[in-house]
Amino acid sequence: MRMEGKAWKFGDNISTDHIAPGRLFHLRSNLPELAKHVLEDADPEFADKVAPGDFVVGGKNFGLGSSREHAPTIIKLAGVSAVLAKSFARIFFRNAVNVGLPVIICDTDQIDAYDELAIDLSKGIIYNKTKSLELRTSPLPKAMIRLLDDGGLAAHVSKHGDLVVDEGE
Amino acid sequence: MALTLAEKILSQRTGREVRAGDTIIAPVDVALGQDGTSPLAVKQLESIGLEKVANPENTVFFIDHAAPSPRKELSNDHKMLREFAEKTGSVLSDVGAGVCHQLIAEDFGAPGQVIIGADSHTCMAGALGAFATGMGSTDVAIGMALGKTWLRVPETIRINITGKLPAGVFAKDIVLHVIGILGADGATYKALEFTGETVAEMPMDDRLTLSNMAVEAGAKAGLIESDSVTKSYLEQNGRGQAFKPLKADEGADYERIIDIDVSNLEPTLAAPHTVDNVRTVGDLQGTAVDQVFIGSCTNGRLSDIAIAASILKGKQVAASVRCRVVPSSRKIFLEAIQAGYIEQLVEAGAVILAPGCGPCVGVHEGILGDGEVSLNTSNRNFQGRLGNPLGCIYLGSPAVAAAAALTGVITDPREVLTNAHGR
């Protein structure tokens, strides 16, 4: 899977309150409308200017805070093809996989705002075309690859009629 | 092999010995969602034609985040949850019953269970010796429908707490201190195990505060061994038969052990805008506050309300402060009324709100104005958390919050505590 787009740079500790704030709680059952405000409290211009295929690039602990799955869902709905960060908060990471939004762990210090990126997920390579740099990402856990391949958790259960991730080490 | 508490619970529930790092499918004993996350869970089940729940008596939908509803959109979400609960025979906890995690502790949680909830503070039930963890709507929806979930067995960081807490210093101060040490991502993917003589002597109200905030260090669970305190808590809630003793094995493999002596701990706060931005009260003394919120799953229990009442009784909330008190459950509200605390707080000028999440999530009941400051006993101070990205939030114990309500500025609670509650 190859993806290309521009980097939108954010800092450390971007919380789910930055991504989908509580003051917009009433829009949670209207995700297209909520998506118009995605990440508004971290960058008020982002939702208007992001183009389909672009990337959200954070620092460490991206997505900390609440369990709201609306956060990765509206990032995906805004057209973002993947989120890159040095590290992710646990629930956000799991939710992103469940809704089919790729999450990529890499050294995001090597990416500046508006750099043009091309990502080959199957090879785990991020090309920073603007800086002529190649970054590597570590593979996802096996259970998560299975879920992403099936199109997310709901699609996985729909396809197999059960939860069939591989157990073991 | 010697097992951590997380490994022990998950081994018992899967019927084979599992170790940190293993991927497992575990049975789900209790599954919960709240009004901010359950509508999406229900829609996911509808989208794949799986509108059933495996274990209706232990599948619970809580209407607590926007309760009573401030908007028609949310009223419609509530309607949908009531209908889905009715259709599937699940339990519905409606407006005014209280915060989901408090009610899980009172009515559902027990040692040795696996509990999953579409709310990050589901980890609070770890104080009862349950492996309880927060997940998103789809994970919980599937857990509700199939009665099982997948998990990676976490490594454990043991937090060994010793020493007698000084007067005016509480479990909230300990857990903020711990998060300051670990950092907001210091326990990501891990379990915390709170142990040591101080925890052994702690009442359940305070243990729940420790476990509640485990997720603020990124942790998947915040576990405490079950013992006589757990047993009597379950008995008080009419569920003594749910007790079983559980402890980690001697020699279990911990990723890290942190020893904390609390004998000289100071009242501790988290300053804006992250929970690991931890300071002692002396660093922040004199900071003006516009609002005080005493409540939430972290600190809205009877002992928390008692401390606030002891500070405010017979006095007046500062004219510059709005003080909101939100009992965590209906039971706690009634007990606080019977003990006279509610009358004392109302006479002092506090506003009492219906049991529930109150302003914690920034939906209603205390949205900040631009540049305003709130001191909360809740668990998060992220930018925008109280409904306005231009507001600032400090977190502290109920004593720190009530002291600020009294004086209008961040104040060392030891200056205003009466002997009875200053220990």
Question: How would you explain this protein's 3D organization?
Answer:
The complex is a heterodimer of chains A (169) and B (423). Chain A has 169 residues and is of the alpha/beta class. Chain A folds into two domains: 137 residues, Alpha-Beta Barrel (Aconitase, domain 4), CATH 3.20.19.10; 31 residues, no CATH class. Chain A has seven helices and seven strands. In chain A, strand 5 and strand 6 form a beta hairpin. With 423 residues, chain B is an alpha/beta fold. Chain B has two domains: 257 residues, Aconitase, domain 3; 148 residues, Aconitase, domain 3 (2-Layer Sandwich), CATH 3.30.499. Chain B has 15 helices and 18 strands. In chain B, helix 12 runs parallel beside helix 15. The mean pLDDT of chain B is 97. Classes of the chains: A alpha/beta (169), B alpha/beta (423). At the A-B interface, helix 5 and helix 7 of A face strand 1, helix 2, helix 3, helix 5 and strand 7 of B.
Write the layout of secondary structure elements.
The complex is a heterodimer of chains A (169) and B (423).
Chain A: E1 2-9, H1 16-19, H2 31-35, H3 46-49, E2 55-57, H4 70-77, E3 82-85, H5 90-98, E4 103-105, E5 116-120, E6 125-128, E7 133-136, H6 142-149, H7 153-160
Chain B: H1 5-14, E1 23-27, E2 30-34, H2 38-47, E3 59-62, H3 72-88, E4 91-93, H4 100-107, E5 114-118, E6 131-134, H5 137-146, E7 148-152, E8 156-162, H6 171-182, E9 191-195, H7 197-200, H8 204-212, E10 221-223, H9 228-236, E11 256-261, E12 268-270, E13 278-280, H10 281-284, E14 291-295, H11 296-299, H12 302-312, E15 322-326, H13 330-338, H14 341-347, E16 351-352, E17 373-376, E18 392-395, H15 398-407
Mean pLDDT of chain B: 97
Q: Do you know the CATH architecture of the largest domain in chain A?
A: Alpha-Beta Barrel
Q: Could you say what the CATH topology of the largest domain in chain B is called?
A: Aconitase, domain 3
Structural class of chain A: alpha/beta
CATH H-level name of the largest domain in chain A... which superfamily? Aconitase, domain 4
What name does CATH use for the topology of the largest domain in chain A? Aconitase, domain 4
| Average pLDDT figure of chain A | 95
Protein chains sharing the most extensive interface: A-B, 48 and 59 residues
Q: Could you spell the SSE succession of chain A in H and E letters?
A: EHHHEHEHEEEEHH
Instruction: Return the CATH class of the largest domain in chain B.
Output: Alpha Beta
Radius of gyration of chain B: 20 Å
Q: Count of DSSP helices of chain A?
A: 7
CATH hierarchy: architecture of the largest domain in chain B: 2-Layer Sandwich
